Amino acid sequence: MSETGELRPFRFGAGGEGNKDEGGARKFVKLAQTAEEYGYDTFAVPDHLGNQVGPIAALGALTQATSTIRLATSVLANGWRHPAMVAKEATTIDVLSKGRLELGIGAGWMKEEFDKAGIEFESPGVRIRRLDEALTILDGLMRGETVDFAGEFYQINGLEGSPRPRQGPRPPIAVGGGGPKMLALAAKHADIISVAPSTTREGKMRLSDMTIEKTAQRVDRIREVAGDRFDDIELNWTIAVIVITDDREATAEMALKALEQGYPPNIERDCEFTVGDVMASPYLAMGTFEEIAEQIREVRRRTSMSYVGVFPTQMDAFAPVISLLKGE
Q1: Of the candidate ranges 188-192, 211-215, 267-271, the one whose mean pLDDT is the lowest
Q2: Could you check whether the bond before residue 169 is cis, i.e. omega within 30 degrees of 0?
Q3: Which residues pair with 147 in a beta bridge?
């Protein structure tokens, strides 16, 4: 929420990986076109070395296969991508899409992928400092400026950013984070911040961070660091679980039982969770379409987050909620 108390209008993000579960690379383009038909504002592609399409090439195809939906990376792994090359590819996609790119970039977090590729997985502090430098370089190059930069990780000598992007002054930059250092870095550089639960060393999301209270605290951290910039930053989150049901409370109780039994495996149960915590969590959406819409309104009211993302497998289930919230 801005100083004036005005809430940003909702935006909705879908995504795809082009893997076998989604029907492979050929179905990938159709998935993006379906997201556009449903009224999603953005279609994002993650950046992993495992079972998915390459995000840059995939977005290149989508610049021609879609016409209105914005195209995003969610998010590029800076650890294996040089910012000079990222800027070149990003502005090319922005031009080809007639100004529809949102460039999401992060420090890279899946150690296993770095190990398999033989790329050094640096300590969190080093990865964050590296990303800080990359974001500074990207900001200049994506504006079409000539950049000189001498840092700990990158040396850029009189490189001019080209092609000039369609969006001015440059495509928006999105950075995600859960820990205080990443959130502070995002508050310094990003136009869009994806507010995520912090993760364990194994990459599991901490259950304690999935409460509405902890989420509001992470937003307060962004507000504190961003200062006057805060009103210009759009806040995003991704719903991890969507269940359409007529009995919210019973479903929340079932979700608690599943968590106790270690499902889903990507969540670290590091605290006691109540039915109330489940029903209020920004990251868990259960109920009728109307109840989920109301829950999302409440999340925005309490945190000022307004840009809602969903996972590829839940794009269809969530679509009716968009029509209830569009324009608010």
Answers
A1: 267-271
A2: yes
A3: 159
Backbone angles phi, psi at 151, to 5 degrees: -125, -170
CA 271 to CA 255: how far, in whole Å?
15
Cis status of the peptide bond prior to 175, with omega within 30 of 0: no
Q: Are 69 and 41 in contact (CB under 8 A)?
A: yes
Determine how many CB atoms are found less than 10 A away from the CB of residue 314. Answer: 18
List, for residues 210-228, the tens digit of each pLDDT value: 999 999 999 999 999 999 9
Q: Which of 64, 145, 73 is nearest to 98 (CA)?
A: 64
User: What is the C-alpha to C-alpha distance for residues 37 and 194, in angstroms, rounded to an integer?
Assistant: 24
Distance of CA 303 to the CA centre of its chain: 16
Cα 136 to Cα 147: distance, rounded to the nearest angstrom: 10
Closest of 79, 76, 72 to residue 112, by C-alpha: 79
CA atoms of 235 and 226, how far apart (whole Å) = 12
How many other CB atoms are there within 10 angstroms of residue 48's CB atom? 15
Burial class of 116 by CB neighbour count within 10 A (0 to 12, 13 to 18, 19+): exposed
The pairing of beta strand 101-106 with beta strand 234-239? unpaired
- The H-or-E segment that residue 108 falls in is none
**Spatial separation of the C-alpha atoms in residues 251 and 281, rounded to whole Å:** 14
Structure tokens, 303: 């945190």
Residue 91, number of CB atoms within 10 A of its CB: 25
Instruction: Determine phi and psi for 243, rounding to 5 degrees.
Output: -130, 120
Q: Say which residue, 110 or 167, is predicted with more confidence.
A: 167
Q: What is the pLDDT of residue 179?
A: 87
Pairing of strands 146-150, 155-160: antiparallel
